[in-house]
Amino acid sequence: MQEIKRVSGVPVSVVITTYNSADIIEETLCNIKNQTLEYYQVIVVDDKSTDGTAEILEKFDKEDNFKIVFNDKNRGAAYSRNLALSLAQGEYLIFLDDDDIYHPDMLEKAYHAAKSRDADIVVFRSYGKNLQTHDTSPMTWSIRDDLLPDTEVFSARDIKNNIFHCFVWWAWDKIIKRKIILESGLRFQEIRTTNDLYFVFSIVLCAQRLSKIDDYLITHVFDRKNSLSNTREQSFLCALIALRGVRDELIKKGVYEHYKAYYFEYCVSFLNWHLITLKDTAFFEMYECIKDFFQEIQLDPSLLAGGYEKEKYKEFSTLSSNEYLIREFHKLSLDRTRGEVELKKTQADFKNTVTSLEHKVASLEASLNEKENIIIKLKNYISHMESSKSWKITKPLRAVNFFVSNSVGRGGRR
Q1: Considering the entire predicted model, what is its pTM?
Q2: How far is CA 121 from CA 59, 174, 176, 203, 206, in A?
């Protein structure tokens, strides 16, 4: 890696907000403490935890580059991030979750890329880990190369495809220049969930120099019990607040008409995902709110280019919440049946392949055994022949024949 000359001050400020994370926070902060970047600032904001998190954080408060802040009451992750932003000194900022796994060279690689390219924002790749299944796999969809310009550095206006689908609008896979945050005046919406959508999309829209790297630097943890993402039914309207914020920002910048079709498509796909992951009665309440929201933003279905978005909007427009839920259930059941059929076929193909390989192995073993037996018989025959009286008597004659044949051969080559 080419060495980047360090400017005076702090290269990167790491912001972590946490609440009741006593079981994981120490491991997370040790992970951050052991980063390979030479120097960086770590700001941890505890949102009035009640489980012993504060006692763990106090141990890290002794570290030179750590600053631990304790909220006077539970205020939410967005408030805590905004507070940390006001305390940050780094040239670049990164906003991290308190339960993900950070690769040791994450900060070094992200900062190096940002600094060497003079980028406002650098986005990097990540793995996803499901805590329920313990499966870990690359989240290739978090950066859509097929939608991005084929240049190392670009701006939002250079993205000619649907900008909403280029990235995922969470904060933790992006390192952002603090200067553009301060100049833009943007802050996280102080809502319980979906509080990073408005901020991250809007700051990307502001950036003149965007870039991405293909290094996988974070393992993002899914399905942790009691996480905010798993309890969104308590604050399902936050998704609508975030989307309104995005629309207001587009209008403010005078680019709403340019992005309107893409915005409509994103609203349909994002809200459908949000809806089908809700639990209990929140689903039915959210369904009616989504229909009202589409009327509020005057969503024009003729601008929906994607088949999936067209289908979903039609369902929202024509079906009751019960009918929609039943249709989703039938689709999921059909997908499950197809998946089971495909699994059985794959298992059968695998079994046939294994059986075929076993037959080939058995055939090869039989062939090798047969050849081994032939070799043993030949060895025995040669041994018996060499010990016979006739072999010993004719040995001088064979030596003469060998000498004569060699002499004649050499004479013929002269």
Answers
A1: 0.79
A2: 32, 7, 5, 9, 10
